[in-house]
Amino acid sequence: MRPVVLCFSGLDPSGGAGLQADIEAIGQAGAHAAIACTAITVQSSQQVMGFEACSADLVEQQAVAVLNDLPVAAIKSGMLGTTDNIAKLVSLFKSGQIDKSLPFVLDPVLVANSGGSLGDETTLVAAFQELLPFATLITPNTHELRALSGEQDLHVAAKKLCHQGIHAVLVKTSHDFDSGDIEQFLYIEGEIVLKSVIQRLQGEFHGSGCSLASFIAGRLAMGDDLITAVSAADDWIIETLKAADKPHPNDKTAQLIPNRFI
Ligand code: PLP
């Protein structure tokens, strides 16, 4: 069977972000996505109206069912929604139920691209500090990177997190809408090992962060090293965004949905 990525992520009914983005991106990377659902959100392509988180016990039961059954080759987390869910993932690593040697891509989701809350930011940031050291790679947007590190400068922030024991940080300026072209830096153990400048496309994309992180997790499950996986994901995400669906073609400010079947 294809290698499996076990994803901890929430349901976005619009299908742009969350677990659907994970399933589609991981499939495109050549792997199979299995999901432990952490929350059900109420949202459109444009805004988050609310969410209900799954209990940590329910998340654990889903994860254990997959871990006992399928050849899990990588872990990916997105929206966890509550500090209990973050603590549960920490305990799955600590107890060895999740093998600590598996690649783990952690997308530290705090807010949606549209600005809607996907959890209580202050308590989530505190709880994430325990989970971050288990990650092979974290993929924060600029807001999340600043919140997790307490630093405004993105490079200082990435180096600080590496010095606190995080293996690798992917810095991306895609959510800084006045920053011109998108710059990406992959920091491994405090050093930049990969830099890219990507032309900024018109529009905002709902679920681009989820898609990028999941594609990387899929490639890691397929056996790529981190630098190869991130480079492949950069090439792939540009194509998905160029082919994005436009739910509101006449509204220039509406969010677009990445087309992951390119
Ligand atoms: N996970 C879920 C369930 C979401 O609904 C969202 C955003 O709406 C995200 C993650 C983060 O999305 P993005 O890839 O736009 O950062």
Description:
- The structure is a single chain.
- The protein is α/β, with parallel strands linked by helices.
- It has a single domain (4-256), classed as Ribokinase (UDP-N-acetylmuramoyl-L-alanine:D-glutamate ligase, 3-Layer(aba) Sandwich).
- The protein has 8 helices and 11 strands.
- A 6-stranded mixed sheet has the order 3-2-1-4-5-6. A 3-stranded antiparallel sheet has the order 7-8-9, with helices on both faces.
- Helix 7 (208-221) packs across helix 8.
- The radius of gyration is 17 Å and the shape is globular.
- The two termini are 23 Å apart.
- The relative contact order is 0.17.
Descriptive tags:
binds pyridoxal-5'-phosphate; 6-stranded mixed sheet; UDP-N-acetylmuramoyl-L-alanine:D-glutamate ligase; 8 helices; 36% helix; 3-stranded antiparallel sheet; globular; alpha/beta; single chain; 262 residues
Rg from C-alpha positions?
17 Å
User: Which strands sit side by side, in order, in the main sheet?
Assistant: 3-2-1-4-5-6
Q: Assign the CATH class.
A: Alpha Beta
Number of strands: 11
Inertia-based shape = globular
Structural class: alpha/beta
- The helix tally amounts to 8
Q: CATH superfamily, please?
A: Ribokinase
CATH architecture: 3-Layer(aba) Sandwich
Strand content: 15-25%
Given as residue ranges, the uncertain stretches (5+ residues, pLDDT < 50) are none
* Number of domain units: 1
Instruction: Report mean pLDDT, rounded to a whole number.
Output: 95
Spatial gap, N to C terminus: 23 Å
